[in-house]
Amino acid sequence: SYDVTQPLSVSVALGQTARITCEGDNIRSKSVHWYQQKAGQAPVVVIYRDSNRPSGIPERFSGSNSENTASLTISGAQVGDEGDYYCQVWDSNAWVFGGGTKLTVL
Amino acid sequence: QVQLVESGGGLVKPGGSLRLSCAASGFTFGEHYMSWIRQAPGKGLEWISYITSSGSITYYADSVKGRFTISRDNAEKVLYLQINDLRVEDTAVYYCARDAVRSGYNWFDPWGQGTLVTVSS
Question: What is the pLDDT of residues B13-62, one digit of tens each?
Fold first, then answer.
């Protein structure tokens, strides 16, 4: 089965840039989607198909996908961006989620 | 607006069964693939099952294959998850989610609020 790996946690100073990675073998060949989950809430998509931002998601959220690493970048992180972030791909007739990354804004 | 509302969760003894439901509204249910995802307490997201818009094709995670059955009633706009032989490790919040695009195999948007299943003796 296909595995994707995320860092357990990422910390960022208020207003600075946070980068959350999602590593997988040749992940560049797949579409990667990113979800934000705040405490006690259901996940919400923040980036779809590698780098597309849904309506209503702030411009500070961006995504990229290259070789073996997909990335979610939050430029000018805000306290309201704290939460857990998950990447997702489709592979071999199964959806795969990364283990999740806890983002802390200091 | 697009809305998904899960129900059917609760406290069940090991070996028991449950049927979860996900009522859809605000969109043409029969045109979208649907999924079930669960989240154990304090853990990450685990995809469980996926069903095409017609219900003709289903997919399951290896961890639940043979015990879980996904189905749908497009006329009633309801997605189901039948869970048999429940185990303590099935304890989780169960979410349903809609494929964002009608063609399938796309991101999930939106998700329901989840229903809690607790398996304990």
Answer: 999 999 999 999 999 999 999 999 999 999 999 999 999 999 999 999 99
Query: Measured between beta carbons, which residues in chain A are less than 8 angstroms from residue B113?
Result: 42
**B78, B96 contact by CB (below 8 A):** no
Rounded CA-CA distance B109/B19 in Å is 23
- The amino acid sitting at B87 is R
Are the beta carbons of B77 and B25 closer than 8 angstroms? Answer: yes
- Determine the Cα–Cα distance for residues A100 and B1; give it in Å rounded to an integer: 29
| Candidates A1, A84, A97; nearest CB to B46 | A97
Round to whole Å and give the CA distance between A62 and A60. 6
Q: Which residue has the tokens 């923040």?
A: A46
Instruction: Please list the helix, strand and coil fractions of chain A in percent, rounded to the nearest 5, in that order.
Output: 5, 50, 45
Could B45 and A35 be called an inter-chain contact, meaning their C-beta atoms sit closer than 8 Å? yes
